[in-house]
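idk why but the lab printer keeps eating my pages so im just putting this in chat instead. protein + pyridoxal-5'-phosphate:
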Amino acid sequence: QEPLAVNDPEIFQIIKNEKNRQRHGLELIASENFASKAVLEAMGSCLNDKYSEGYPGLRYYGGTENIDALERLCQKRALDVYRLNKDEWGVNVQPYSGSPANFAVFTGIVGPGGRIMGLDLPDGGHLTHGFFTPQKKISATSVFFESMPYKANQTTGLIDYDKLEENAMLFRPKLIIAGMSCYSRHMDYKRMRAIADKCGALLHADMAHISGLVAADVIPGPFEHCHIVTTTTHKTLRGARSGMIFYRIGEGYNLEKPIKEALFPGLQGGPHNHAIAGVAVALGQAQREEFVEYQKQVILNAKRLAKTLQDFGYEIVTGGTDIHLILVNLRNKNLDGNRAEKVLEAVHIACNKNTCPGDKSALRPSGLRFGSPALTTRGLMEEDFDVVAEYIHESIQLTQFICDKLEGGAKAPLKEFKNALYTDPEVQQRV
Ligand code: PLP
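predcted complex ->
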């Protein structure tokens, strides 16, 4: 029973390095957060060691009385946090993460080769919503299901619901996915439900990014209009790395059995009980007043970051944000997100390069996605985000400075750009 530092100093050192990186840098990745000590304690507990294939009361392993209690409590908290009536909604807390949660819904509800429509990846959707390119079916969702993406208006960046309706009536999907990884506005669930009803589809919200905001009731949630809701639990919700599937039950709904069976035994084996405990702890925290205050601040901070960057002359896709993330489009600066991301990383600011509506290549995306959840957890307020915006601005100016030094400018090979970033003395001085 030696501590990690003694038993495996190599791994101990890597974890220590990562902790330092997280502490000393600015974490602006929209899908990340810092889970509480209590969540991490649950994750690092003896629950890791227990197998419990099956569901509470019906397991394929013995010794599961504590696991049954854990899973039932997690389910109860999940329904409570989202203010759901247990006669109308059920929840499955076993998905290992967001991707298997979605895949289980697709296999259980749509069936092999069935049709789905999700927001296209370059317009803010997630890989698992059916992404493919003309050259390749990228996501397993597009390999095993027939996917027709819907898109955002390429000028405004806003979802084109009229076109979605037109295409849905032609394509007749079984499932429409209302969800995103990089779309900064509320989704119009009401309109999407009307479209789903009209074309005979079910409406599935993937609220992975916004599940903390929905839990705190600071933005409109998807439950009123959707049949199925999936989520990750480690983004704005600030829990363990895991997933959940909510589905309607009762009169006229036949969703519970196919989803349950698609997840286990269809896709997964034994549940990750340590993760379920970490989610349950986070769901407990999400019922406290300070969680609501935190989520309000997350939105205020993201809005302030958008405004300050706009004041510096940057274009924010859709003109701003309603939630925790923003997408900056560098196209009008003649720069790309990839190079800017490298400079930000060099100065210890972590964010994502991201495609913007209208981008021709995912390899040369023109955007940068920034999110406020992690730094808000660290206690940063709006004024602090003004300083963060200044650092971002300086980093983008440095990106421009490096491009200007290279013969090919912004089009010079990335290798040359990185070489200048890490070796050019003038650049080093500014870093
Ligand atoms: N759905 C959405 C909307 C996401 O943004 C993500 C992850 O970023 C996922 C699903 C997949 O979650 P995971 O990476 O946990 O599998």
